[in-house]
Specification:
The protein has 292 residues and is α/β, with parallel strands linked by helices. The chain is built from six helices and 14 strands. The radius of gyration is 19 Å and the shape is globular.
């Protein structure tokens, strides 16, 4: 019995240590989609989500600074950029090389662009009854971040529409503020007659994806799910933290499921909450999407 208990304890510690290590193994995941209208030049875009930056995240900052070697045509930030009130300078340093190259793009927010994370029982994601009342979160510098990102040349797409020159063609953009905390207010003005539209949302709730699909969006970008964050090898994610099923917790797939009239790209994201700094069988990523 003692040997069995010791073995189980050792295995548990091993898995815990491995999951902490995996959370720092930042990856670039590459996807190719042939969805652009005829006559539009191929382009490469980045979907950067769930950075959850802390002031001491030097490895993550350098990973982001090195993304210029991908030669992207546009960069899209899909929310939860910060996890600390002191992390904005590090975020701006991380993204500055992309801005210095004049790469266009846009951004939306997640809840952790407005409020710093607070501790909660990680098991509450799987068993909601275990959730306890959280303390009041600190406000993050969301206004200063928005101003800085706009100064970098990127469009604030929270509940807004815009246009972007991409691949020699003017395309449409549409985005919403974070649906996970009910800040989404889908723009009601008529959709443009531009040949292609990209949509941004932090949390990929079906109500938002359906609106984008009805709006004629060709590609919707999102994050939020962390790919499940803790996955069972051979099975996959246990939760999505939204109303999508676990088979569509991350990756690139058609929407609506089974009809595929719009493409959706959901990133596993780069970070975690500082109170749950682990990932299992679900390494952090940014999505590199080549459109043709």
């Amino acid at each position: 019995m003692i040997r069995t208990l010791a073995g189980v304890t050792a295995a548990g510690l091993g898995v815990a240590g491995w999951s902490v290590w995996e959370a720092r193994q930042f990856q670039r995941s590459f996807h190719h989609l042939s969805i652009l209208p005829a006559g539009m030049e191929p382009v490469r875009i980045l979907n950067i989500s769930d950075i959850h930056l802390m002031p001491n995240d030097g490895k993550k900052v350098e990973f982001l600074r090195d993304l210029t070697d991908l030669k992207p045509d546009a960069v899209f930030l899909t929310g939860d950029q910060l996890s600390s009130t002191k992390a904005l300078p590090s975020l701006l340093r991380a993204l500055k090389p992309l801005a210095d190259l004049g790469i266009p793009g846009a951004f939306v927010y997640g809840s952790h662009d407005y409020f710093a994370p607070v501790w909660k029982n990680p098991l509450s994601y799987v068993i909601p009854q275990l959730a306890s009342e959280a303390k009041e979160p600190e406000d993050l510098p969301h206004e200063a971040m928005a101003e800085a990102l706009v100064d970098y040349g990127w469009t604030d797409l929270r509940n807004a529409r815009a246009t972007l020159s991409l691949g020699g063609t003017e395309i449409g953009l549409v985005g919403v503020d974070d649906p996970h905390i009910d800040l989404d207010d889908y723009p009601t003005q008529p959709a443009s007659s531009l040949p292609f539209t990209i949509g941004l949302t932090h949390a990929p709730y079906s109500r938002v994806l359906n609106r984008m699909n009805d709006d004629g969006v060709g590609l919707a970008l999102a994050g939020h799910t962390h790919g499940g964050q803790v996955c069972v090898p051979g099975y996959g994610a246990l939760v999505t933290n939204c109303d999508l099923d676990t088979k569509h917790v991350s990756g690139v797939f058609g929407w609506p499921i089974g009809k595929r009239t719009m493409s959706a790209a959901i990133s596993r994201g780069l970070g975690t909450s500082p109170y749950a700094p682990f990932r299992l069988a679900c390494r952090p990523e940014i999505q590199v999407i080549d459109l043709a």
